[in-house]
Every structure is written in C-alpha cells, then in structure tokens.
Amino acid sequence: MSALLLRDIRLATRAGGSAMLALAFFAAVATLVPLGVGADLKLLARIAAGVLWVAAVLASLLALDRLFQADFEDGSLDVIALAPQALETTAFAKTAAHWLTTGLPLTILSPLLAVLFGLPENATAALFVSLLVGTPAVSAIGAVGAGLTLSIRRGGLILPLIVLPLLSPAVIFGAGAVLAVLDGLSNGALLLLAAFSFFACVLSPFATAAALRLNLGS
Amino acid sequence: MAASIKSVEANALTVIRGGRVLFRDLSFRVEAGKALCVEGANGVGKTSLLRMLGGFLDPASGTIRIGDAEDAEERGKLVGWLGHHDAVKAQMSVRETLSFFARLYRGDGDVEAAMDAVGLTRLADLPGQYLSAGQKKRVALARLKLCGRPLWLMDEPLASLDAAGKTIAADLITAYCARGGIAVVATHELLGIACERLVL
Amino acid sequence: MLRYANPTRFMQLSGTLVPWLAAASIVLLAAGLYLGFTVPPDYQQGDTVRVMFIHVPAAWTAMMGYGLMAVASLVGLVWRHPLADVAAKSAAPLGALFTALGLITGSLWGRPMWGAWWVWDGRLTSFLLLLFLYLGYIALWNAIEDETRAARAAAILALVGAVNLPIIEFSVDWWTTLHQGESILRSGGPLISTVYLWPLFAMALGYTFLFFTLWMIRIRTEILSRRVRSLMLTGEA
Fold first, then answer.
1. Most buried by CB count within 10 Å: which residue of A51, A146, B154, C153?
2. In what order do the strands lie in the sheet with B151-155?
3. Cβ neighbours of residue C208 under 8 Å, at least 6 residues apart?
4. ipTM of this predicted structure
C-alpha cells in the first residue's frame, strides 16, 4: 500500500500535479470573498469559518475527479487492481494520498488566510483543528463520488452535485466549531466532526472499491 | 517467478456484451509452458475474453479456472496484465514506473535487468511524456517481466512496436513459457512464436 | 414476490392494480382537500395553516420515496432482481417532485408569517439537501451510458445517500439550534389538535397512493420503452 501512496503523492506534487492547484484555488477564493463582501473586519470574522470551510471543500473537489480517472484512462487502474492488495486497500491508499496532498496543505495554509479575515487567535486555532479533523471526510466522501463518476466524460461537473450535499455535515460542524469559540460557547462540534470523519473514512474504501469494481468490468 | 500454475481452463463460456452474444459455449485449456494465441477480427471479443480471464468481467455463463482459483478476485492475483494502454505516467521516468510496479507486485525486483531485456536502459531516466508509443509498450513488457505472475494476459502486445521491438516481445514470451509460465495473447498479427491457436 | 420479478407478470399485475390505486388516490386526496378547507382556521396562523395539509404530507412522501429508492437499490445491487433497478430509477423523479412541492409549499406557508420567501428552518434546509440528493442520483443515471453500469453506480450512490441522510438531518437540526433558528415548520408546529389530524392523514394517504400509482405507471413505461429499444436493435441486427 505504501508504494501506491508514495507514488500518488509524488505525482500530485510534481509540476502539473494537483497539490499546488488546490492551494492556489483556496487562496484565490479566500481573497475574492472580502472583495465581494466588504472590508468590515467584524463581519469578515463572523463569516470566515464558513467561507474558508466552503473554499476548502471546493479546493479539495478540484483534484478529485482525476483521482481515479487518470489511472483508469491510461490503463494503470487495471494493473493496480490486479496487485496483491485488496481493492479496498487501494482505494484507501489513493484517498489518503489525496488528503495528504490537498486537505492537509489547505489546513496548514488556513491560519494565514484566517488573518485576512481578522479571526482572533483562538478561533484560528479552532479553524485549524476543525480542518485537520474534517478534511479527511471530504477526501473520503469525495473518493466515493470520484469512483462512481470515473467513466463519465464530463464527470467533473457531476461530481460536485453528488458529493456536496453529502458533505454538508462536515461544513456545518467544522464552521460550527469555530463559531463556538468566537461566541465563547462549547457545542461539541469538534467531537461530532471527528465522529463524522471517522465514520466516513471507515466506510469510504468499501463504497469506493465497489464503484471501482463496477467501472473496471467494462 | 512465483509458484507456477498447472493450467488455465475455460468451460462453456458464454458472453453477452451490449445485447450481442459474442461467443457461446467456448471451452479451452492451456497447459503450463504453453502460449495461446487468440485470433480474430476487431470487435469479435478478444479483449472481453481476456478481461474475463483476468476477473474484471463476469461471463453470462460458464466457469474459468486459473490453476486452482475459480473466484474472480483470486484469479486476478495470478495474472500479469498487458492491456491496450501501457500504464505509463507522463511525469514518471521509466525506472520510477518499473520500480513502482515491482514494489506493488512484490515481484522479483530486478528493474535494471528488465529494462535491459527490453532495450530501454539508455532511456531509464526519461519521463513517460517523452517516450514514443513503441517505447511505452516496451515499458509495459518490462513490467510484465517484473511482476512475477504465473499467467500473462496480453492484449495486442505487438501494437506500436517496430521490428526490433516485436522480436523482443516474442523472445520475452518464449523465455517466459520456457520457465513454465502460461501466456494468453490476443492478437491479429502473427506472433512469431510457437503457440496454440484459438480463433474467435 | 419473486414471482413478479418476471417483467411480463409484473405488467399483468400492475395493469390491474393501477386503476384501483389511481381511484384510491383521487378519493383520498379529494377527501383530504375537502377536510382541509372545511376545518376551522388556526387562531394564530389563520387560513394559511391550510398550506400545512399540502406541505407536510408532501414532505413525508418525499422521505418515503427516498427510502423506497434505497431499498430498491439494495435489492438490485445484492440480489440482482431485474425489476429493482427500474423501480429505483422510476422512483427518483417522483421523489424529487414531491420534495420540490414540499419546498414550494413550505415557502408559501412561511411567507405570511415571516415576510420572507425562504427561511433557513431546519426542515426546509434538510429538504433542500434531499432535493440535491435526488438530483445527483438522477444526473448520475443520465450521465452513464451503459444501462447496467448506470443502475449499479446509482444504486451505490442511493445507499451512500441513505446512510448519510440521518446524519445530514441531525447536523442541520444541530445547526438550527446553533443559530437560534425558528422551528415552527416542524410537523404540526407546537401542538396539533385532533381536528387537524384527519385532513393530514387523509392527504398523507392520498399522496402515498398517488406516489405508488405514478410509480407503477413509470415502471411500466420504462419496461415498455426498453422492450421497444431491444426490438429496434434486434430488428436491425
């Protein structure tokens, strides 16, 4: 499994890979919103969590539609599917590589972007933790969508439609965790988010492998 | 090479694709050390047969055995696959691609020897995007050599290869069979090796 | 039930059932609407409470539709029951329609009360997400060219959605408490007096029968159009 994981990370971080693309998109969206909403820092601080969470989800989605499609198109998926590892392990390895090259870098960049929104330090810390805990769920659920849409020519358009409603709990709990800190409350959001992420990560390889098996049989 | 298998058997295979019956009640058996050339025009079902043997597709009826394995996923673990596309990534060099597959398949990983056997040593560090179609096919052939599987399923292995490449391919298959491997090759060209023939 | 797995048998059975189901739905809906309009108006909401009789049952039916779709998907995926895929595919647009109906009537219900065409109430928000789940399912079916593959992919999606739906509802519920949202549109509101229950149940039953009627008609249509298609193909071949 580590062979596949390392290879995917290497591919994503090379020139033309998806890692930088996701980061750039994240930063671009985060910069655009204040331009649309105005420079009122109090307002920006209130919407920061939601905006940055949505931007993170969208940036993660960018790299998703090629997650399996690239390997499917050049015949690599056939060869990888016949390797000694179970298809579920393969799905998990590729999903993990996706998180390591999009979700994790986004999380690391987020404190910098939080500054643009005037988020106080404690809320920024909450944002960082919420993204760290929640972005694996984004990769996990996104991977299922990627597996289902891998043979569709314009799959990149239908993938968000399928995946975004399923990710609403992550956005709700993730942004909710930050708002709790901003309002000085405790609302258990992080725990709920962690539970959701765990649930998603455990189930995703099975659904993804089922989708892959389906598309390989053609 | 991993423990070799005794035979590959298909019994009364019937395949229906897209509403058409591709073949009905097809049976054959290939013993260890032999090669089977599956011949036929385009669209007749050669690729479907190979994908079925590999466990990707299920036949409408009939059974397939590779060695002792009947279940599709078990069968797949005994197969070295060479399909229409060569599984060569644009951004990875020849050596990186082959090392990756060697690690993935936990095969006997002499990447240098494999590259040498297909004549790609000189291009070892060239990224896939600069390789010609024939060179990519050679990478795929080297990958087969590295994966250490007792059965090779090859779909048009001679496509894109020049005369030297075709000789390399033929030699590779002959040597593999001599070591006890079984090769099932779908091709509409003459392979130039001793093989049993199955015409679809 | 497996006896009706044969499409021909199903066509025969459904052919006789459809008129009865249709009649039942018309009768129940008529009764429900009559009761709904003759029931005394609510002291707080006035006559607008009558929208509830159209809105709430639509919501229930939409949820039921997704459940039926998920069950059909499971049967199709695990037991490869030939009609299951057709059943699931046919249920989706109906479910989407009932969800849209629920959203529109919910909006109409809320307008007189809060002066806004839309409020981010827990129920309406969950509903909007349910609509997207339906739309994604339908889009996936339409996007994959091979029928069998489309059926299996959509089935996987329906099951993932079904598992996720309770979580989504919970999270939206939690979200409304976080933002101190109003939950007046919760089924029935504060307390429902028995007077209101009768029209509600009549409408709910009417909607259910309507759903099954339309569902059967759609399945029949799908079976027939597949037959036409295969006749055209073999005719040419």
1. A146
2. B79-82, B151-155, B182-186, B35-39, B196-199
3. C61, C64
4. 0.92
- The verdict on a CB contact (< 8 Å) between A7 and B100 is yes
The reply to whether residue C160 touches residue A211, judged by beta carbons under 8 angstroms, is no
Cβ pair B158, B118 in contact under 8 A: no
Kindly give the pairing relationship between strand B196-199 and strand B182-186. unpaired
**What is the domain count for chain B?**
1
* pLDDT value of position C4: 57
Cβ <8 Å between C157 and A148 = yes
To which residue do tokens 């999903």 refer?
A95
DSSP state of C48: G
Q: With contacts defined as CB-CB under 8 Å, which chain B residues touch C230?
A: 19
B26 within a domain of the structure (yes/no): no
For range A40-66, the mean pLDDT: 92
Residues in C touching A166 (Cβ below 8 Å): 133, 160-161, 164, 168
Tell whether B58 lies on the interface with C, counting CB pairs under 8 A.
Answer: no
CATH number at B40 reads 3.40.50.300
Query: Is C156 close to A211, i.e. CB distance below 8 A?
Result: yes
- What residue ranges do the domains of chain A occupy? 2-216
Q: How far apart are CA A198 and CA A202, in angstroms?
A: 6
Given a cut of 50, the residues of chain C with pLDDT beneath it are 1, 181-190, 237
**Position with higher pLDDT, B159 vs B192:** B159
